[in-house]
Write a structure and sequence with these properties.
seven-stranded mixed β-sheet, mainly beta, 3 helices, globular, 2,3-Dihydroxybiphenyl 1,2-Dioxygenase, domain 1
Amino acid sequence: MHIRQVQLTTRSIDETARFYTRLGCEVTIDRETASVTVGSTRLVFRALEEMTGAHHLAFTIPTGTFAAAKAWVGTVATLLGSADVDEFEGPPGWNSRSVYFEGPDEQLLELIERRDLGPGPGAVAPDVAPGLVSVSEVGIAVPDVLGAVELLRRHGLEPYADAPAAEFAPVGDVDGLLILVSPGRMWFPTLDRTPSTAPVVLDIGLGSTVELAPAVLLR
């Protein structure tokens, strides 16, 4: 499942644009949106000052570049975790490891090395922006996680790796995942950040439109 485009909201177009420019992404601003190129994915942010909660996005990095990518992102953003732990192995069956960091407008962002995708182009210098392959996770708050899983199954999308649970269920594959969560569940690894319920539109080439929650659309 390849995530081609994600339309999201932000409280500040300018802050979002500045951050993604520091992250090494191509950013285009017009009067109403900021468009960000992350590898093969396009993010489109629209202003919504009254939005609540935090968006979660994960960016795949080439396998073999984790240490350098972590060192680099720590120079442009605040890493999340604790003084003792700031990198995390993925859940059983994921064969991945991640580093989380503070994005603009309370976004909870993640660099993830997915070892099942095979080796990347080789090591990169720690002072060079990592090559971001794509947006490979989008967090989505839904009122009924298991109901959303069944709806997506009817459209050919299956749970990933582990059995879905009532508050958390990844759906998709190693290339792209929808991270379905209940609205009150905190985003890992924080203890104070809940998912946004603002509008989200994802283009994954589904061929039809699926509404997972009000103003949350999958195409």
